[in-house]
Amino acid sequence: MPCVPLKKNTPSTASNVSNNSQARKPVPYVPTPSRAPPPPRTAPTTAGPAWRSKTVANKSVAPNALMRQTVKTQASRIDPTMASAMRQLNINNGGPPQPPSPPKDCFDPSMAPAPPDETAWQGSATPTIDSKLSTYEIAVFNKVCRRTTRTIADFKAGQIISVPYHVPNLNPSLKANHPRLALTCEGPVFSKRRILCVLYKFHQDLLCLSMFTFEGKGFGGKPEELRKEFVAVVNKGAEKFHNPGIYQPIEVETYDPARPMKETSCIKLTGPVTVNVSEHVGFVGRMDQLSWARLAALFEQRQKLARQKGFNFVGGKAKAMA
């Protein structure tokens, strides 16, 4: 087999080798950066997101509106009347509504003022629950009892006085939170001060006749049969007076000349009231002897007519007359 001679490198071949060596230059090594370590794990928090802290200021204290709504809801489950009354209450008012004050320019018989501080309470210690209260010579002034040391000698016929007055409430339109309405074991009672006229004196009690104004309207609008049971009241020295009744008016005089009786004042002849002389009585005014005698005569006249409508005993049996 013939030998084949080796070929020598030519310049073109050398240039090709140099070009290949330049194309095959190694890429410089660049180290890969290491990963950052993960953040350390912490215990979970209960603070919640930021928006929640701005919405609820304090979870332990309910907002005022929510508190009021909750109270009303709970009250409605107990008594609908109570819930209706609480809707009118202001939780933040600091106490129950106060009764209106009597007018300062006149004496309103249906809203008499309380008597000022007097000496009837002085000189006696308030007894305890173990004290004997069999005598009326002990004055009491506490949360459950108010009793003075006055006697029958401190009063005169014809005087005009103010006393605490309590009657069963017959007005269904009053709200349960009315300041003069109280719930007792015998039902709702309406309380206020009323002006009375002392008609007769007994050993320990006064027989009095009540005075009214009928909310400033007087008794002129009542039926004729009812107007016979009232007599008008006129202030002493009054220049103008309209008499809505059928009897001569009773002339009165207040101890405070700046506060006369209201022009619509009247006396009910058929509504006698007994007053204990130890009650918390205030003195308003008086009437002269002639007016007192006329008032007593009118009262006796109505008593006589009432006796005629009593029982007529016929044949040993009682028969009611019309």
Automatic annotation (TrEMBL):
Region span, Disordered: 1-61, 88-125
Coiled coil: none
Composition-biased stretches (Polar residues): 9-23
Pfam families found in the cross-reference section: DUF6590
Compositional bias of kind Pro residues: 28-42
Origin superkingdom: Eukaryota
Boundaries of every DUF6590 domain copy: 154-295
Name the UniProt record assigns to this protein: DUF6590 domain-containing protein
